Amino acid sequence: MRKILAAVDLGADTLNIVAHAEWLASGNKAGDRSCVVLLHIMDFGMTPPAYLLPYIERERALAENKLKEIAAGINARGLKAEYRTMMGRLVETINTAIRETGPDMMVLGVKSHLIRPSSSERLIKSLDIPMLVVRGPKNVTDGIMIKNILCAVDFSETSLKALRTARELAEAHEAALTAVHVVPIEKPFIGWVDSCKDDLCRFKDESVQKADERLKSLVPQNCKAMVRCGFPHEELNNAASETGADIIISGARGLSYIKGIMIGSVSETLIKSASKPVMIIR
Q1: Domains 3-134 and 148-281 in one fold
Q2: Using 50, 70 and 90 to split pLDDT, how confident is the model at 135?
Q3: Architecture of domain 3-134
Q4: For the chain, which has fewer Cβ within 10 Å, the N-terminal or C-terminal residue?
Q5: Roughly how many angstroms between the first and final C-alpha of the chain, as a whole number?
Q6: CB atoms within 10 A of CB 129
Q7: CA angle, residues 78, 84, 86, in degrees to nearest 5
């Protein structure tokens, strides 16, 4: 990846977000150094009144000084860094920054809200580039080490693209890769007769067998393939814990077991529930 756009609010998550952006940039095997673009957005829903402009300019100057300091550290570690401050509505301004900078990947933190969707959830629906949603330890001072990658595969086009990305990252960073397919559990309706339940069990067993064969055909021998049954986001989180995954990679939208019905809830639920960073591939 030649350019990574890292959105930072200069709060507690900033060093963690920057560390993950540097990790992505360090995997570039091309001759040119990868560039991390630090983006700080002064979130205003409307144009501020004139009497606030001096305060806003002081805030912008303070932010740029902090960004300059972070960028200097990135440059000292052998990568390129740029920074910019922008003002406007958060999601719309991020999309503007993407059009202007042309990054290969977006990195940002997650803040869940009980009433309204988080910015990362809204960005899933609007971004046309991959995004890495970072959560986890805040006290990152010496970079991060990603040694175990878990990739969700439901055999949809976007999940196969996610698997390709996961393989590239695993190779670039010498990390272990586990591909996981989850056969969702369907709860029998009240009043189903035993024969119907038996048919459901038979369907599940056949689905697991077919998925296992297909998944193993997609991953190289040095990667692990795992098929589980249950609710996708729960099983993916459980698999991440069991394998010691440092990051989860998923397609933005996939196919349900009812052929042709598109779903996006798994990736969104992962962002809300995962204790690990989640990379969403479009």
Answers
A1: yes
A2: confident
A3: 3-Layer(aba) Sandwich (3.40)
A4: C
A5: 15
A6: 15
A7: 155
Q: Could you tell me the two tokens for 151?
A: 């990739």
Decide: helix, strand or coil at residue 207. helix
Whole-number Å distance between alpha carbons of 282 and 271: 15
Rounded-to-integer distance, Cα 102 and Cα 120, Å: 19
Cα–Cα distance list, 133 to 54, 267, 268 (Å): 33, 11, 11
- Domain ranges in the chain are 3-134, 148-281
Beta-bridged to residue 149, according to DSSP, are: 177, 247
Residue 193 confidence class, pLDDT cut points 50, 70, 90: low
pTM over 0.90, yes/no? no
- Separation CA 19–CA 200 (nearest Å): 46
CATH class of 148-281: alpha beta
The CA dihedral of 258, 262, 265, 268, to the nearest 10 degrees, is: 150
Placement of tokens 């990736």 in the chain: 267
Are 248 and 236 within 8 A, CB to CB?
yes
Is the Cβ–Cβ distance between 43 and 89 less than 8 Å?
A: yes
CA–CA separation, 190 vs 242, rounded Å? 34
Instruction: Output the DSSP codes for 65-82.
Output: HHHHHHHHHHHHTT-EEE
Which H or E run includes 50?
A: none
**Per-residue pLDDT tens digits for 251-282:** 986 544 443 333 456 887 888 889 899 999 98
Distance separating alpha carbons of residues 201 and 234, to the nearest angstrom:
20
Cα Rg of the chain (Å, integer): 21
- 3-state class of 279 per DSSP? strand
Q: β-strand 3-7 against 35-43: which pairing, if any? A: parallel
Whole-angstrom Cα distance, residue 246 to residue 149? 6
Helices within 219-262 (DSSP H only): 232-243
